């Protein structure tokens, strides 16, 4: 009698727990504002619907890439979200597995379908972020050209990410293109930056948190930065605005892929489909300022401010051949360390 | 017969008891260091990743490239300046605290050692705010007219020196403090009775006796500063690279782990050489005080 | 005016008064000991004279100069510490030369004086040794030489021999006395050892609870202690309760003593003090009273007897002249001469 009672109680305790047993899905993606948006607004609905707990591994694109390299034999990460540049590198090193296209995937711009193994989840433009109030106070017109950053009036008051960050790489490529070179001839970019741009820089700061800090403490008034970061700082009330330079704004995308050999492949594929859905895309646009990759998303002009959306903006976007850039990037990094970041 | 056998077993007991600790040390410290050392001989290609070949190419590149020379020079310069500053600040500080009344002494020790309880990253972020162009230091200096306009402290080597000194002074104070406690306070009274004033007593009687404390303190500060990462990263920025931040870049940005490992091994080697030389120099000069 | 004048010297530590209005004078060239149990304030007094502790009240005048608030390094007073306080990182020669360096004595003269100081303490060959390479006694002699080489006006010795073994202590005591006499240096010694105090001093100051109970030559202080405390601190004493009976004096339970002018002015009840060496053993019944031998201890040059009598327990010293001595348990008689009886005020106290 006592034995039966004991087994019943044990069952009553274990069964509900078993029914609610959850796996864990590991997602590696950017930290900062992106992380808080995902964890607060995007993941909870998915976790509930799929009975899975999502563990967030924060890091910028190169950090995540380094982790994928370290884990190559036994990956812990299921879904990796990185800038497209490092994603191309991951693809060439076979860190990603094939995507299972769903209905949302079919509605995605072709520019975002970068490979059968990876897809863009948000559009970002790279240009110049500036403190509108500081500019007004100094009586300066907002910047509208990459060449503006060479202006001596900005000396020590501007910053940019390093070459380890995609924004930095985009800037170098733009400057090369503007001075007779390009992705095949990068030297004009280095020469111009070493001569005109680097001396004006207060710092080379790759961390988004530290860059916001530099703006907010007044240390800098402008920086080479992306729309999504500008958007999040502006959301806090700080008077940060984004300027699309007239020579063109390099686009980059947040891209996602399912890691080759991931433990929870089913949930990983479902998560990427979920990220491409119109609701989540609109959420990204409204909360983090990334341009939607899903064609069916509609934004009002007010909502679309500072976001890459609409035919005018889409036409100024410049795309670079990331495979080529990735091949040359290590050599450029060496030169960057010696010529620019000193 | 049985006696010697059991005696030998008893004599071996201390070694057996050390084994768990030794295993821990070996697994967590010796093995990773050995792996890093071996990694430094491998090669790296941007397309194929780490190649398990063996050569001294990495070391050759680091030792001949002036780029790396300037980084190591900066690393050692910052470590040296910080050690000097910590000695000049920490030694008098420890002495003064040791001569306070017990109630004030405990309070001051807590104030000096308290920062050790706070994460070094948090402290360094605080320095970022203080050292900024619009930060407190510049505001005060310009406000009282000592400076015509704000001076660049953030993202400079000087700023790094200042922040690192603040981080390291507690270690120096601790090391010197233990040495001071071992001095017979009557020797200072004896010096006074023989006609020495406060400063002369400190210089001729106290200082030579605390050299062991200064030695261990400076070794700790030098090694920690030369290998420190957080403060140079946050205060120096990407332009003022030191060895540790360069290693970080290699491992996480360029993914050239073998070269990163080579820089790490060279850093360890140069710290060890300098520390041993410093130790020998001081011990030889002050062998008399080593009672 | 005396060479050293101490007036009303006081020092308090919180609620405790360590030194309570101490007055005394020292003549030039005199050797005075401050003697007392621990906590009596003798070391604190010395520290104030040296300048290591500021007095809360009172004054110190040396050779007419007011030292009370002067920094210790300007007082020109030599100090020898209990722990010797030699500079461990300097050789013996450098230790001794230190005071001369502070006085900017030129090198040749400095070296000559250091050598002479070392010869005075018989350590001429140790000039290049380090303190840790020497024995306690040798270190103490170096400390002495270091204090003397600066030709101080006053020499202060803070229990310098308490860390030495008995034989060495005796030798050092004689050594210090000789040096002090030869150099004629005014000296104050702090000690808890009464034999040392009496052997070395021109005058002994017995201290208790921050005050000087008695300051006089060793012999006077010993024979005329003036207080019960001093009588039991300086040497041993048999203290017996006494009371007045008309013109006479009654001891203990009724032993009658002849009247004595020394007992005048001491009130109804007082103390009778008999030194053990002044009591004589005689055959039972032949003395003033009888006693039983409780124990006897042989101490080489004399015997110590513990006797049980109608006056309570009594101690007797008897010089060893080779004659037979009473056995334990035996009955003996006790006698003493009237002029060896000392009367002291107050009730009998614990020793």
How many strands of chain B?
Answer: 2
Determine the fraction of residues in helical runs of chain C and give it as a percent range.
10-25%
| Beta-strand fraction estimate of chain C | 25-35%
What is the count of structural domains of chain B? 2
Low-confidence stretches of chain B: none
Low-confidence stretches of chain C: none
What structural class results from the helix and strand content of chain B?
mainly alpha
Shape of chain C: elongated
- Please indicate the percent range of residues of chain B in DSSP E strands (runs of 2 or more): under 5%
Order of helices and strands of chain C: EEEHEEEHHHEHEHEEHHEEEEEEEEEE
Summary of the model, kept short:
The complex is a heterotrimer of chains A (342), B (291) and C (351). With 342 residues, chain A is of the alpha/beta class. Helices cover 45% and strands 19% of the residues of chain A.
Fold and architecture overview:
Chain A is of the alpha/beta class. Chain A folds into two domains: 2-123 and 252-307, 3-Layer(aba) Sandwich (D-Maltodextrin-Binding Protein, domain 2), CATH 3.40.190; 124-251 and 321-339, 3-Layer(aba) Sandwich (D-Maltodextrin-Binding Protein, domain 2), CATH 3.40.190. Chain A is built from 14 helices and eleven strands. Chain A has helices at 2-19, 32-50, 61-70, 84-92, 103-106, 132-138, 166-178, 187-197, 208-216, 227-235, 265-275, 278-288, 311-316, 322-339; strands spanning 23-29, 52-58, 79-83, 96-97, 118-131, 158-160, 201-204, 222-226, 240-243, 249-259, 317-318. In chain A, strands 1, 2, 3, 4, 5, 6, 7, 8, 9, 10 and 11 form an eleven-stranded mixed sheet that branches. In chain A, strand 1 (23-29), helix 2 (32-50) and strand 2 form a beta-alpha-beta unit. The mean pLDDT of chain A is 88. Chain B has 291 residues and is mainly alpha-helical. Chain B folds into two domains: 1-29; 60-285, MetI-like (MetI-like fold). Chain B has 13 helices and two strands; from the N terminus they run αββαααααααααααα. Chain B has helices spanning 2-39, 57-64, 66-98, 102-113, 120-131, 136-143, 157-181, 185-193, 198-209, 211-226, 230-236, 243-252, 257-285; strands at residues 43-45, 49-51. In chain B, strand 1 and strand 2 form a beta hairpin. In chain B, helix 1 crosses helix 13 and helix 5 (120-131) runs parallel beside helix 11. Chain B is flat and about 75 Å long. The two termini of chain B are 43 Å apart. The mean pLDDT of chain B is 89. Chain C is an alpha+beta fold and 351 residues long. Chain C folds into two domains: 4-228, P-loop containing nucleotide triphosphate hydrolases (Rossmann fold), CATH 3.40.50; 236-345, Beta Barrel (OB fold (Dihydrolipoamide Acetyltransferase, E2P)), CATH 2.40.50. Helices cover 24% and strands 34% of the residues of chain C. In chain C, the strands form four sheets. A six-stranded mixed sheet of chain C has the order 6-7-8-3-9-10, with helices on both faces. In chain C, strands 13-12-11-14-20 form a five-stranded antiparallel sheet. A five-stranded antiparallel sheet of chain C has the order 15-19-16-17-18, with no helix packed on it. In chain C, helix 2 (92-102) packs across helix 3, helix 2 (92-102) runs parallel beside helix 4 and helix 3 (107-120) packs across helix 4 (136-148). Chain C is elongated, with a radius of gyration of 24 Å. Chains in contact: A-B, B-C. Chains B and C meet through helix 8 and helix 9 of B and strand 6 and helix 2 of C.
């Amino acid at each position: 009698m006592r034995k039966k009672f004991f087994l019943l109680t044990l069952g009553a305790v274990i069964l509900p727990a078993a029914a609610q047993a959850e796996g864990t899905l590991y997602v590696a993606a950017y930290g900062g504002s992106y992380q808080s948006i995902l964890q607060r607004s995007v993941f909870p609905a998915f976790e509930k619907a799929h009975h899975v707990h999502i563990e967030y591994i924060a890091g910028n694109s190169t950090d995540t890439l380094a982790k994928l390299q370290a884990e190559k034999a036994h990956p812990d990460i299921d879904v990796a979200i990185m800038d497209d540049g490092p994603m191309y590198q991951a693809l060439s090193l076979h860190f990603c597995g094939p995507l299972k296209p769903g209905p949302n995937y079919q509605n995605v711009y072709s520019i975002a379908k970068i490979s059968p193994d990876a897809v863009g989840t948000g559009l970002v433009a790279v240009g110049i972020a500036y403190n509108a109030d500081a500019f007004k106070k100094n009586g300066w017109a907002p910047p509208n050209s990459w060449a503006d950053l060479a202006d001596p009036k900005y000396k020590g008051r501007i910053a940019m990410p390093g070459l380890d960050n995609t924004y930095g790489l985009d800037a170098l490529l733009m400057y090369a293109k503007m001075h007779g070179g390009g992705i095949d001839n990068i030297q004009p970019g280095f020469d111009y930056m070493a001569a005109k741009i680097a001396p004006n820089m207060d710092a080379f700061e790759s961390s988004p948190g530290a860059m916001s800090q530099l703006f907010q403490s007044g240390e800098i008034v402008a920086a080479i930065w992306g729309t999504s970061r500008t958007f999040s700082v502006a959301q806090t009330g700080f008077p940060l605005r984004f300027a699309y330079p007239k020579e063109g704004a390099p686009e980059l995308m947040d891209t996602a892929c399912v890691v080759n050999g991931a433990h929870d492949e089913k949930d990983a594929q479902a998560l990427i489909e979920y990220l491409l859905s119109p609701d989540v895309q609109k959420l990204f646009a409204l909360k983090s300022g990334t341009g939607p990759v899903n064609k069916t998303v509609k934004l009002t002009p007010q909502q679309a401010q500072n976001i890459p959306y609409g035919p005018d903006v889409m036409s100024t976007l410049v795309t670079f051949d990331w495979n080529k850039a990735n091949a040359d990037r290590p050599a450029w990094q060496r030169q960057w360390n010696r010529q620019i970041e000193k | 017969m049985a006696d010697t056998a059991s005696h030998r077993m008893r004599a071996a007991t201390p070694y057996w008891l050390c084994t768990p600790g030794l295993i821990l040390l070996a697994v967590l410290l010796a093995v990773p260091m050995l792996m890093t050392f071996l990694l430094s001989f491998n090669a790296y290609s941007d397309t194929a990743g780490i190649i398990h070949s063996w050569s001294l190419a990495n070391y050759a590149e680091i030792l001949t490239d002036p780029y790396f020379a300037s980084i190591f020079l900066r690393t050692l310069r910052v470590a040296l300046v910080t050690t000097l500053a910590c000695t000049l600040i920490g030694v008098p500080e420890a002495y003064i605290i040791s001569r306070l009344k017990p109630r004030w002494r405990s309070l001051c020790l807590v104030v000096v050692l308290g920062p050790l309880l706070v994460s070094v990253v948090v402290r360094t972020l605080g320095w970022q705010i203080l050292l900024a162009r619009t930060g407190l230091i510049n505001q005060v200096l310009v406000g009282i007219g000592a400076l015509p306009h704000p001076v660049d402290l953030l993202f400079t080597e000087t700023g790094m020196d200042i922040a690192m000194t603040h981080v390291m002074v507690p270690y120096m104070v601790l090391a010197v403090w233990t040495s001071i406690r071992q001095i017979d306070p009557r020797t200072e009274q004896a010096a006074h009775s023989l006609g020495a004033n406060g400063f002369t007593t400190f210089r001729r009687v106290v200082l030579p006796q605390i050299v062991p404390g200064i030695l261990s303190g400076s070794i700790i500060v030098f090694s920690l500063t030369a290998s420190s990462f957080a403060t140079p990263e946050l205060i120096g920025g990407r332009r003022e690279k030191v060895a540790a931040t360069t290693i970080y870049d290699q491992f996480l940005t360029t993914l050239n782990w073998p070269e990163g490992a080579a820089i790490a091994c060279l850093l360890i080697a140069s710290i060890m050489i300098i520390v041993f030389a410093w130790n020998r120099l001081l011990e030889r000069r002050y062998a008399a005080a080593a009672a | 005016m005396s060479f050293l004048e101490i007036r009303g010297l006081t020092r308090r530590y919180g609620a405790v008064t360590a030194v309570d209005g101490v007055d005394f004078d020292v003549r030039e060239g005199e050797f005075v000991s401050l003697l007392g149990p621990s906590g009596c304030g003798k070391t604190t007094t010395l520290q104030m004279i040296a300048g290591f502790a500021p007095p809360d009240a009172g004054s110190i005048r040396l050779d007419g100069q007011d030292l009370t608030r002067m920094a210790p390094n300007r007082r020109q007073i030599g100090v020898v510490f209990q722990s010797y306080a030699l500079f461990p990182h300097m050789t013996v020669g450098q230790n001794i030369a230190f005071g001369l360096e502070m006085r900017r004595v030129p090198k040749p003269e400095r070296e000559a004086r250091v050598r002479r100081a070392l010869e005075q303490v018989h350590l001429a060959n140790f000039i290049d040794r380090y303190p840790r390479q020497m024995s306690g006694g040798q270190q103490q002699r170096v400390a002495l030489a270091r204090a003397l080489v600066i030709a101080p006006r006053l020499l202060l010795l803070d229990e310098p021999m308490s860390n030495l073994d008995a034989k060495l202590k005796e030798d050092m005591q004689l050594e210090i006395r000789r040096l002090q006499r030869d150099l004629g240096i005014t000296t104050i010694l702090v000690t808890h050892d009464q034999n040392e105090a009496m052997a070395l001093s021109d005058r002994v100051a017995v201290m208790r609870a921050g005050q000087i109970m008695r300051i006089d030559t060793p012999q006077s202080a010993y024979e005329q202690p003036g207080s019960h405390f001093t009588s039991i601190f300086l040497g041993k004493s048999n203290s017996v309760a006494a009371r007045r009976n008309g013109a006479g004096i009654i001891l203990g339970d009724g032993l009658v003593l002849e009247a004595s002018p020394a007992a005048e002015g001491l009130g109804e009840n007082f103390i009778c003090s008999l030194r053990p060496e002044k009591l004589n053993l005689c055959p039972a019944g032949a003395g003033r009273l009888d006693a039983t031998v409780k124990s006897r201890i042989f101490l080489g040059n004399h015997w110590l007897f513990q006797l049980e009598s109608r006056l309570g327990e009594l101690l007797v010293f008897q010089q060893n002249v080779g004659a037979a001595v009473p056995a334990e348990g035996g009955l003996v008689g006790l006698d003493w001469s009237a002029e060896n009886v000392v009367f002291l005020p107050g009730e009998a106290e614990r020793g």
